[in-house]
Design brief:
This protein is of the alpha/beta class. It is built from ten helices and eight strands. Helices cover about 35% and strands about 15% of the residues. Strands 2-1-3-4-6-5-8-7 form an eight-stranded mixed sheet, sandwiched between helices. Bound molecules: thiamine diphosphate.
Length: about 270
C-alpha cells in the first residue's frame, strides 16, 4: 500500500524510524533528496550499496532499505574500492560528513578521485564535526567560533569541490539543503555518471554549528546564514574575487568522461 503522506517510506528500512537526527538538522533532507532521485530514476535498491563512516551524516544509510555498510570514521572510500572492484555491477553511494571525507578520510578521497573510482559521494557539509559536539573541521570558515576554537578558527577552510576537481573527479557539484530541486537533479546526474562523482550539500546544524558559530540554535536563522553566504555559479561573473572568497558557490562544476578504475582481469579471475 502506498503511503500517501510519505511516499518515499517504501525505501526506508523497516522499523528504523524515528531517526536520530536533531530537530532542524539537514541530514533528513539529504536522505529524502537521495530517495527522490532513486525514485525518479526508478533504480532498484537491490543494486545499490550505501556506505557511511561515523558521524551524523554517516547514519543516513542506516535508514535506507539498501544493503549498507556502517563502519569506521574516514574509511568509506576504502570499502567502496573493495566493493566496487569485486562487484562492478553495483552502484556504490557514500554518505560522508565533511570531517569524515576531508579530514580523517582526506587521503582516500584524493586517491579515489584521482583513480576515477566509479562511485557517488554525497558529502553533507555542516561546517563542523557535529556528532562529537561541534569541533572545528577542515570546512569551518575562518574566524568561526566552534567548541574547540573559542577565539575563532585561524585556519583557512578547504574547498572540497576544488580539491575533488584538482584530484581528477569527473563529476563535481555543490548545492545546499535550501535548493532541493537542484540537489535532486545533481544526485540523479551523479547516479547516472560513470566515474567518481561528488555532490557537496551545504547543510544546517543548528545544534552545534549554529549554537557556537552563529550564537543561535534557531534552524531558520542558520538557513538564512547559509543563504546569505551562497551564490549561484551563474551569478559570479560581476562579483570581485575578494567578495567571492567569502561565498559558497553553488552549481555543477565538472562533468567529464574519463576511463574509470577497474580491477584487472587477473584480479577478477582470482576473486571469482
Ligand atoms: C577513528 C575515529 N576517529 C574519531 C572518531 C570520533 N568521531 C566520531 S563522529 C566524528 C565527527 C563526525 O563529523 P563529520 O564527519 O563531519 O560528520 P557530522 O557528524 O558532522 O555529520 C568523530 C571525530 C571515531 N569515531 N573514530
Amino acid at each position: 500500500m502506498t503511503d500517501k503522506i510519505y511516499p518515499l517510506r517504501k525505501y526506508i528500512r523497516n522499523g528504523k524510524l524515528p531517526h536520530f537526527f536533531c530537530p532542524g538538522c539537514g541530514c533528513g533532507q539529504v536522505l529524502n533528496y537521495f530517495l527522490k532521485a532513486v525514485d525518479d530514476l526508478k533504480l532498484n535498491l537491490d543494486e545499490i550499496i550505501t556506505i557511511g563512516g561515523v558521524g551524523c551524516t554517516a547514519r543516513i544509510p542506516v535508514y535506507l532499505s539498501t544493503d549498507s555498510f556502517h563502519g569506521v570514521h574516514g574509511r568509506t572510500l576504502a570499502w567502496a574500492t573493495g566493493i566496487k572492484l569485486y562487484r562492478p555491477d553495483l552502484k556504490v553511494v557514500i554518505f560522508a560528513g565533511d570531517g569524515d571525507l576531508a579530514a580523517i578520510g582526506g587521503n582516500h578521497f584524493i586517491h579515489a578521485a584521482r583513480r576515477n573510482l566509479d562511485v557517488t559521494v554525497i558529502m553533507v557539509n555542516n561546517f563542523n564535526f557535529a556528532m562529537t559536539g561541534g569541533q572545528v573541521a577542515p570546512t569551518t570558515q575562518i574566524e568561526s567560533v566552534t567548541m574547540t576554537t573559542p577565539y575563532g578558527s585561524k585556519e583557512n577552510p578547504l574547498d572540497v569541490c576544488n580539491l575533488a576537481q584538482c584530484a581528477g573527479a569527473t563529476f563535481v557539484s555543490r548545492w545546499s539543503t535550501l535548493k532541493p530541486l537542484q540537489t535532486i537533479k545533481a544526485i540523479k546526474k551523479a547516479l547516472q555518471h560513470k566515474g567518481f562523482s561528488l555532490i557537496e550539500v551545504l547543510s544546517q546544524c543548528p545544534t552545534n554549528f549554529g549554537r557556537y558559530a552563529l550564537k543561535t540554535g534557531d534552524t531558520e536563522k542558520v538557513l538564512q546564514w547559509m543563504d546569505q553566504n551562497s551564490i549561484m555559479k551563474s551569478k559570479t561573473k560581476d562579483v570581485s574575487e575578494y567578495e567571492l572568497k567569502e561565498k559558497f558557490i553553488l552549481g555543477d562544476f565538472v562533468e567529464i568522461d574519463k576511463p574509470i578504475f577497474e580491477g584487472t582481469t587477473v584480479y577478477k579471475e582470482e576473486v571469482s
